[in-house]
Amino acid sequence: MSMTVALVLFSLMSLSFSILLTPLVRTWGIKLGAIDIPDDRKIHTRPVPRIGGLAVLLSCVLTFIIAVQYLPPDLYVFNTDKALGYLGALLIFVCGF
Description:
This protein has 97 residues and is mainly alpha-helical.
């Protein structure tokens, strides 16, 4: 399998995970009470769950775990730079949560 085909497949996989997880995370956010109540400064008119980014993060993590299993070892080498990148992405998620 060429790298281009692999990247397209993994992108579609991540998109599929996001589409499947978003309604579940939305329901979970409503049950937890993690909602944004509209007021004069807000655009939305109904309460909106605030944890939608969790679905995106989970879909990326799931796709990453699956991709690492199928990519040849010479195409993906885990090193300190990548670890710091993942840690940075997690920090951004936690700050927004």
